[in-house]
Structure formats: C-alpha cells, structure tokens
Amino acid sequence: MASSLTCAGVIWAFLSFLCAAASCVGFFMPYWLLGSQLEKSVSFGTFRRCSYPVRDESRQMTVMVEQCGRYASFQAIPSAEWRICTVVTGLGCGLLLLVALTALMGCCVSELISRTVGRVAGGIQFLGGKCSCREGTGA
Fold first, then answer.
1. Where are the transmembrane segments (predicted)?
2. How far apart are CA 15 and CA 97, in angstroms?
3. d(Cα 115, Cα 109) in Å, to the nearest integer?
4. pTM
5. What is the pLDDT along the chain (139 residues), one digit of tens a residue?
6. How does DSSP assign 64-104, residue by residue?
C-alpha cells in the first residue's frame, strides 16, 4: 500500500475524518437547543426537532407531540435564519467530509495528493470549518 502522504499527512487525514464525522453527526442530531415548553422537555436543531407544539383543531388547544422528526419541508423550518443555517452548515459538513475522504484515499494511493492539492484541501477544510463554526457560535 503506497502513500503520497507524509507522517503528518496521515495524521491529518485521520483527524480530518474524525472531525468531519463528528460535525456530520452533530448536524443531524436535534439537540442544539434544549429547553421546556408546556411543561415538557423540548429540543431542536437546524432541521430536526423533538417534542414540539401543534394546534389540535378538534380540541381547540395546543398539544405537545412527544416524538422526534424532521420538518415536513424546507419551508417548514421556523425562520429564514434557520433555513440559511441548515444550508450553510450542510455545505460545510459536506466540504469537510469530501476533503477528509480524499485525504484518507491519499493514504492508500500513491501520488494522489501533491503538496499543492494538500494546501488547497486544507484551505477548503478551513472554509468548511468556518462555515460550521460561524453558524454554531452565532457570529
């Protein structure tokens, strides 16, 4: 198994993959914000939610649905900011995962990653990480 990566490159590839996987898992989990509503524990993320209020027209009152799930459509996400957050975070996670998988392939295939490709990949990773971090900090 020939590799085009140095020892530092191999460590970078594995750490990149672990960070990208953690970012993607975090993106898909609905536990970004935790709280309570109508005396029930609620949580939600960019496109998933758990224990959310709905209007019960037959009883003319608001009831809590105690289950987790995605919003029915992209437009059902509560605000434009959350929709933008979903797109930006998803793109950031996608870029991080693409670069990480390419780096892992560089561990197995010789001459796949040159010094220039490594620098460009690191730049893409930096941008992907900034997209994910900027959304997470509210900056």
1. 87-109
2. 11
3. 15
4. 0.62
5. 556 667 877 888 888 888 888 888 887 777 777 788 777 788 877 777 787 777 888 888 888 888 887 778 888 877 788 888 888 888 888 888 888 888 888 777 776 666 777 777 777 777 766 665 554 444 4
6. EEEEEEE-SSGGGSS-HHHHHHHHHHHHHHHHHHHHHHHHH
